[in-house]
Amino acid sequence: MCSVTGLLVLARLVFKQYFSYQRTLKTDDWVIIASVLVGLPCTILNTTGLTHYGLGKDVWTLQPATIAEFARYFYIQQILYIFLITSIKISLLCFYLTIFPGRTTRLLLWITVAFSASFGVVSTIVSIFQCTPIRFYWMQYVQEEDGKCLNINLLGWINGAVSVGIDVWMIGIPLSQIKKLELHWKKKIGAAIMFLTGTFPTDTGPHVPAGIWEYDQLDNGEVQGV
């Protein structure tokens, strides 16, 4: 999926730079480029790090040192994941800004960009400092050490709920504009279906193993940004 995503993004960039009417890359293009560049090492860490140290295996079959290494890689992945999710949302919002001219709609989109970026920054800071000291996140599995962590499960639920809320809001904005378009009703339905594909990660996420779904979700988001 990662290679397919890279090829699709590359095809989009080549077309917009050399064959489109304006022949230039816009903000949404640069943001999706950043997400792909971060997504590549993220995928490598997932396949060579997490997989090597027990991804998909029963935790009771692993040695404490192996679990600690897995936790170290997972800690890094959390931070990268937040950046990727945030950048994909912002890329889509920047794309919407190029196709919806209405003043109120653009204001709502800019507010959503600001909120998404702010939430991403706050989530990153919380993720980095969720344990005190930081290394307690992975060292707690191999040695006795004084430290404490925030409720990681609660943080995950809050982050997921807010992220889904932003997704629904982002879908609602373009859908509210479709009825204003001077198009045949069949074309309006087609446009609505196109925007509703953004719900795919949210709707299918609970039914796919987390270790596999996490990065397929990101690749799917980057493809949607194309």
Report the β-strand fraction as a percent range.
under 5%
The stretches of 5 or more residues where confidence is low (pLDDT under 50) are: 201-217, 219-225
What characterizes the major β-sheet? 2 strands, antiparallel
Structural class: mainly alpha
Radius of gyration: 20 Å
Q: Helices and strands, in N-to-C order?
A: HHHHEHEHHHH
What distance lies between the first and last C-alpha atoms, to the nearest angstrom? Answer: 14 Å
**Strand element count:** 2
| Dominant shape | elongated
Give the number of helices. 9
The whole-number mean of residue pLDDT values reads: 79
Strand line-up in the sheet with most strands = 1-2
The residue fraction in helices comes out at over 70%
Main location: membrane
Membrane topology: Multi-pass membrane protein
Keywords: Membrane, Transmembrane, Transmembrane helix
Subcellular location: Membrane
Primary descriptors:
2% strand, mainly alpha, two-stranded antiparallel sheet
Could you please describe the fold and organization of this structure?
It is a single chain. 74% of the residues lie in helices and 2% in strands. It has 226 residues and is mainly alpha-helical. Strands 1-2 form a two-stranded antiparallel sheet. The radius of gyration is 20 Å and the shape is elongated. The relative contact order is 0.13. The model is unreliable at 201-217 and 219-225 (pLDDT under 50).
